[in-house]
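Same chain as my last thread, 249 residues:
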Amino acid sequence: MSTTSELMKWGAGDLTAPNAIILSSLRNSGKVAVMASEEDDAPVWITDNAPFVVVTDPLDGSRNIDASIPSGTIFGIYNRLTEIDNLPTEEKALLNSLQSGNRLIAAGYVLYSSDTILCTTFGSGAHAFTLDHSTGDFVLTHPDSKIPPRGKGKFPKKYSARYICSLVADFHRTLMYGGVAMNPRDHLRLVYEANPLSFVAEQAGGKGSDGKNRILSIQPVKLHQRLPLFLGSQRTLKSWKVMVMFNKQ
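reply #2:
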């Protein structure tokens, strides 16, 4: 996993570096037609006839690096829309990147923390792998992960509030222990953050919502479209009072 190794070595320097690393890796793979990144104004058309489209937040939580707070990479993968191959490059690159989350075929995140963890889904459960630094391999450590319902996590208790300003870190804790990872403002990006993590959440038995709608059912209309995001177990999101308060805004 040379791409992950490069990202782990990268420090709080040039914010374009992680984006360039991922683009280079996808270009070299020969498998990706389009990459849309939070760091770019427009999608990048990589090559004709490649089967996949990748959307990514290359380094989520990058503002926290100097504070030694965990960061991560978020990604989603779609099939290329072959029916629009005849359109101009810029137009087909955009339309491929604005697919609904319902069309995701894979998604996941990499958490850079005390361990380096890759959590991914291909539509049949969510599975987390931990990097073995001695071999460079990712080892399956959390097969078929499920978000614990309220009161069923490792530390069952009444809710308390935590916000580390690193979506990957907050969501990973929710996946492990239950609760809710959220940002009630129109702040998080539908294409790069909300859709991929909601796909993982649903495959882990949970849910992604903007407070009113299922995230994966929302059709993106802009590449950098922002919205509120709530991620957690279905039971928690149905019962949590914050959701009711948000809906009244």
